[in-house]
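S.,

As promised, the zinc ion run. Input:
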Amino acid sequence: MDDLKQSISDKMKSPQWKLLLALLLTTVFLLVWSQLASINGIKEFNISYSQFMEQLSSGNIKSVTLKDLQVSGELSDERSLQVSGYEAPQQIKYFRTSLPAFQGESILQALREKGVVINVESAEKMSPFWQFIVGLLPWVLIIGIWFLIMRGAQRIQGGPGGLFSFGASRAKLHDAQKSQVTFKDVAGMENSKKELEETIEFLKNPGKFRKLGAKVPKGVLLIGPPGTGKTLLARAVAGEAGVSFYSISASEFIEMFVGVGASRVRDMFQKAKANPPSIIFIDEIDAVGRTRGAGFGGGHDEREQTLNQLLSELDGFESHEEVIVIAATNRPDVLDPALLRPGRFDRHVVIDRPGMKDRKAILEVHVKNKTLADNVDMEKLSRGTPGMSGADLENLANEAALIAIRKNKDKIYMEDFEEARDKVLMGTVREESISDLEKRITAYHESGHALVAHKLPGTDPIHKVSIIPRGLAMGVTQLLPEEDRHYYPKTYLMNKLSVALAGRVAEKLVFNDLSTGAQNDLKEASSLAEKMVAQWGMSEKVGPLSLGRAEEHPFLGRELALPKRYSEDLAWLMDQEIHRIVVEAESKAEDVLKADRNTLDRIAEALMKEEVLDRDDIERIIKEAKQL
Ligand code: ADP
Ligand code: MG
Ligand code: ZN
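Predicted complex:
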């Protein structure tokens, strides 16, 4: 609704609203003016009918003007009469009153008998034309306001659309020639591409499939984290097949008007079927495809209606119709099972975050039309960006270009990419003055992370340690895996826990005090330990159970309705084990730092001087410290 208000207030500034305002003002002015005009400078009092009759019978009326049931006139002599609207009696010369009903001859008779001058005014002072216009005015106003509000509502829905096309889907028709995205623009994802090849072949050459009586899955669901290129891939499929492409975001189905969603779905399928071969692409399908009846407050009628319509459209396909429905989601777990049934979205293409090779390929796509310096090492860069999605990498390449421009360079250098990566990963550098003590605490904290990471076997190598405040953090120790990990051994996780806690341990050791700066480390450690115990079965005491505890549900999904699958006793035991694991990891970090206090001091000193140390610096300092 806020959108609506916003839209209306925007409207106020538009020409239509100005016109409307002018119309309103004119109307008000006309009304006021007509009131004023009728007074005509004479003080006219409203008297009652009985007072009028009294004056008439006493012969004190000089003249009257009749207009329908309205009588106005002049008394022969001023009279003091009590009239409504005044406390004291008024001296009245001119009066006005209404006749109770049309009395025809009888009142005229009475007037004539008393010798009153009678004027009759035609009821219609205005010409019929003006009367017509004035009569129309309120209607124009009402229709005008309705029209503008409707237009506003349409604007919110995000499309042009005529006044009466609420129900029409705004699936945008992309002509085959216009869908220029092809598989060439999609780097990596070889497996996903392969899975979609059959679909493309079917759209290009349906006859081949028909001859053998093969049925091609009509519904393809692309599943993957945000920014991994699902939308891009769907477009590329349309581009490769060279067919019409109807794309809509599922949230566009759900509008402020009930029933619109269902009719939009119907409309979109109609359009696509009339234009075969074609692809319907429903982005973010979880917006309508959520399990019916889940979430707070039970169901959402409008959404369920839309979903039901979608399901029945999917069923309504004939096998000879060359229409493929592709949907994308990052929450397959919340989708209604009915959507995933055979015959609907039964072909699932899972798109994962890109591995190192794919990251390199994606980066190469996005630097294609950028000028790079010779020292840019794509290999190193892609190794240094684990977990980044295609969208992140695109952003990284763009940030690097912006940084280079800001420094007035004519090429993008490796340093610019590194800076862009730090910015994307950790936020922008904060320019602020930090006290020496704070700087010292931060330096020891980060040195603690770095030293423990270096000492414990099987942890990821150090990439960079910095005490320049960025984003919300005062400093950072970056570890980067040599290659993408698919499994996490328990020893690796235990050491990771120790590394996470090492910053705090170093503070305690050196300053014999704790600071609030370690909150994020603690959060990370706690959640890692909880997962180890409750999900990955890494505690001997709890045993090999995965109980759904510590599972993340960032949005409201099905998990909410699930009952707790463990007893209070087990919950207590899990808490004990989580606690034990964390404490164990902490004491391990403490052992390492105590044994090597000298090295810790040296790293911290170097950090206070340099502010940033990379892997080579750290290794050199540690080696030098040993030789002492
Ligand atoms: P999703 O729909 O999965 O959230 P998008 O398809 O919108 O992600 O991807 C966002 C952007 O990221 C794309 O416009 C594209 O520029 C970039 N991108 C993602 N994956 C790739 C890839 N494999 N190759 C090239 N660019 C990619
Ligand atoms: Mg998308
Ligand atoms: Zn820390």
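The longest helix spans residues 128-156. Residues 186-189, 224, 226-232, 328, 362, 365, 390-391, 394 surround adenosine-5'-diphosphate (ligand 1) (CB under 6 Å).

- D.
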